[in-house]
Design goal:
With about 140 residues, this protein is α+β, with helices and mostly antiparallel strands. Helices cover about 20% and strands about 35% of the residues.
């Protein structure tokens, strides 16, 4: 009589062990693909196009002076009175641009790496400028009528 409860226990253990080792039912590939591809009818996906600017080059025609390797390029520039000149720091360290003409610009421009500053030259004249951090860096803006 003892064998019946032992056999019953073994059978129950086998049933639980076999029933618990199964994996969940797999979804069909078609159903998975359809769910991932079908968008909601009320949602529209915008198309984003990256906006890039063309690289700026230093030239006299656009009145840009590039600071590179501790030099102004070009160092000397002639512009029409009323024009604006822009300095772009292409170095990996700062530069501070100041003008020698007293009273022209009270606060020098401090330009970190990749920063720029602009100055308008309303009156005709010669404007000498330099870097206060690197005094050997010098240049001249000549504004003509």
């Amino acid at each position: 009589m003892r064998t019946v409860p032992v056999l019953l226990t073994i059978v129950l253990l086998l049933m639980f062990t076999c029933g618990c080792s199964g994996s969940p039912p797999a979804q069909s590939p078609a159903a998975t693909a359809t769910a991932a591809v079908t968008p909601s009818p009320s949602v529209t996906t915008p198309i984003l196009t990256p906006v890039t600017s063309p690289p700026r080059t230093s030239s006299v025609s656009d009145n840009t002076i590039t600071i590179v390797k501790n030099t102004f390029s070009p160092a000397n520039m002639t512009v029409k009175a009323g024009s604006t000149v822009r300095w772009v720091n292409a170095d990996d360290h700062p530069h501070r641009i100041a003008f020698r003409k007293e009273g022209f610009l009270e606060t020098p421009y401090l330009l970190g790496a990749s920063q720029s500053a602009s100055q308008r030259f309303d009156s005709a004249g010669t404007y000498d400028y330099y870097c206060t951090i690197h005094p050997s860096m010098q240049g001249t803006i000549t504004a003509e009528v």
